[in-house]
Every structure is written in C-alpha cells, then in structure tokens.
Amino acid sequence: MTTTPETLETLRELGRYIASALPSAVLSTEVKGGELSVRVHRSAITRMITCLRDDSNCQFTQLIDICGVDYPDKEERFEIVYHLLSMKQNHRVRVRLTANEASPVPSLSAVFPCANWFEREVWDMYGVFFSDHPDLRRILTDYGFDGHPLRKDFPLTGYVEMRYDEDQKRVIYEPVTLTQDFRNFDFLSPWEGLRTALPGDEKAMTGKA
Question: Measured on CA atoms in the order 117, 120, 122, 124, is the torsion positive or negative?
Fold first, then answer.
C-alpha cells in the first residue's frame, strides 16, 4: 500500500497532537512504514487509550489487537503493543509500552470489552499480568499448562507431552522424553546419512541448469 506525503504529514501532525494532549503519558511518537507509533508510560495506558477513543480529533473507536514481543536481554523484556483503528478519520495507530514479570499492566477491559480476551492471550503466551482484569486465565493453552510458549526462553519441545494411555483409557500428560537430543543429532544414522545421488544432481556437478 502506497502512502502519500500528505498522509504521512497528517500522521505526524496527529502524533504531535496526541503528545500535546497527554504530555505526561507520551514518551515518543514516530511515523514509520506509513503508520503512527506512540510509546507511552505503562501506568498511563488507560488514559491514553481512553483519549484516543473519545477525543474528537482521534476517534479511534476500534481496538483491533493487543499483542506482545519478548526481548530477553532488556530489563523490561516485554513490549505490549495495541493497534487501534479510526473509521471516522481513516487512520490507524500503534501504542507501545514495556513491562516485565513483576510489573502489571493496567487492563483495558473497562475501556474496550474486547481487550478481555486479547489480554488473556498475552498473559497465556508471555506471562504479562494485567491488573484489574475480571477473568485473567489461560485462553489458548490447557488448564495446568507449565510456562508461557512465546517467551524466547521457552524450550522448543515444551515441558510436557500429551498422549492417550490405553491402560487408563484417557489422555495423560507426562514429561517430554526425546529418543535423540534435537541439538545433538547422529548424522551417521540411516535417515540422516543419505549419500545416494538423486536425479538432477549431475547438473550441480557440471554447473549446467
């Protein structure tokens, strides 16, 4: 999608307006990739989203999504990203804040009811706690699931595996067992040691396509 210079300037002007409307909440604004991004203080997220929804110059009346990003090397490793849409102004805005395991983020469920499930997903996948959420529990993984799957330090194999037990006649969970460590493959095994030339390999030897 091509963004015209006029649209980019409109977004920059909107960013300046938002920063002036809530100067104590906004850390920075930028227009990148044809989209406006606003970085805010974690404690001010409710005021910010309410302003974006109700201000006549904004009218971002639809909360499209809330998602997370994990940067393990940072002190506040998680970034929470909110995407909003203004049908009236035909604009989108991205609002960002940082958090960690010990710093709760105010819930937006009282501002946008749809935030309820979005925040539950972020909690499930990343372990970010949302204060004042009416029903903060897992939504994608099963009850009793161990860990948060989208964290960068979550093992690729997970912690438990599920299988149907014929003796107990039910599904059971048990610790993951690997017959071969996925980081230490045996390259001499038959399924990894294929040396037979396949049709077409001769082209690589001659350099002809």
Answer: negative
- pLDDT for position 121: 97
Task: Please list the ranges in the chain whose pLDDT falls under 50.
Answer: 209
Q: Tell me which H or E stretch contains 173.
A: strand 170-175
| Domain residue ranges of the chain, discontinuous segments joined by + | 5-145
- The pLDDT, as a whole number, for residue 3 is 78
Q: How far is CA 151 from CA 13, 50, 69, 78, in A?
A: 36, 29, 8, 9
Compute how many other C-beta atoms are within 10 angstroms of the C-beta atom of residue 76.
14
- pTM strictly above 0.85: no
Superfamily of domain 5-145: NADH:ubiquinone oxidoreductase Nqo5 subunit (3.30.460.80)
